[in-house]
Amino acid sequence: MRIIGLAGWSGSGKTTLLTRVIPRLVARGLKVSTLKHAHHAFDIDQPGKDSHSHRAAGATEVLIGSANRWALMHELRGDAEPTLRVLLHKLSPVDLVLVEGYKREGHPKLEVYRAAVGKPLLHPDDPAIVAIAADTSLPEARIPVVDLDDIERVADLLVRHAAPLDAVLAKVRPA
Q: Using CA of residue 1, residue 161, residue 153, residue 140, what is the dihedral sign?
């Protein structure tokens, strides 16, 4: 399993880029998974559904299965937020894991940069950023820069710079 992240400020287009590049990677024959960090509370369940009632009643984990998919929801119930390391271990083996967020971790990352966001580049302060996908030219960049809309080149960079799981685990915070 190889890992690479997409890092950038809120509004830079990380999710949009992922939804455009994943089909290209899959078309290349790769099995791809994503791991997304949320800075806010989120819920994939809905009040009134049985699974929501199970969690509301105090279940720590609720696993839902069907002929099409399964989902495991785990309530932390006051425990610490799991680290990237812990979450990577929970994924089933695939060829490539794309991590959205976790921009302060040491795994290799592609920076997504959009000038209109008005924030500075991350790469000068993060040696784990291996390239930038941007909507503007960045002559000051010390690493490769590709056009944000050149999805084939973005896919090439992601595949080329993804690191094996063991190498990533050596660079991210311990559990």
A: positive
> Nearest Cα to 34, choosing from 91, 97, 79, 88?
97
**Which of 12, 18, 171, 158 has its CA nearest to residue 95?**
158
- With pLDDT > 70 as the criterion, what percentage of the chain qualifies? 98
| Predicted structure pTM score | 0.91
Phi, psi torsion values for 125, nearest 5 degrees: -105, 5
* Residues 6+ positions from 97 with CB-CB distance below 8 Å: 1, 2, 3, 4, 32, 33, 34, 35, 88, 91, 165
Tokens of 156: 């090439």
Nearest residue to 169 (alpha-carbon basis) of 107, 76, 104: 107
Burial class (CB in 10 A: 0-12, 13-18, 19+), 93: exposed
Question: Which of helix, strand or coil describes residue 49?
Answer: coil
